[in-house]
Design brief:
This protein is of the alpha+beta class. It has one domain: Orthogonal Bundle (DNA Binding (I), subunit A), CATH 1.10.30.50. It is 32% helix and 13% strand. The chain contains 3 helices and 2 strands, in the order H-E-E-H-H. Strands 1-2 form a two-stranded antiparallel ribbon. It is globular, with a radius of gyration of 12 Å.
Amino acid sequence: MPTKPIERLLFMQGNKCFFCDKKLTRADATIEHLWAKSKGGPNGRDNCVSCCVSLNRLFDDMSLREKFTVVLNQNGKFK
């Protein structure tokens, strides 16, 4: 059973990015906080997902609403 937080998230999400559904390796994965830590978001399981590095950088400290607006506007097909 995975023990590190990122490994646990990858396992639970089928080794895919929460937002773009891209297959992730451990080296390509980061932990994305749905509610940004910089805005007071917790570090708990309910606020964390595995995410590809490029989207994690793009989302930075966006609100959850802004993140989902980006995802919906891209129809999940990021380039």
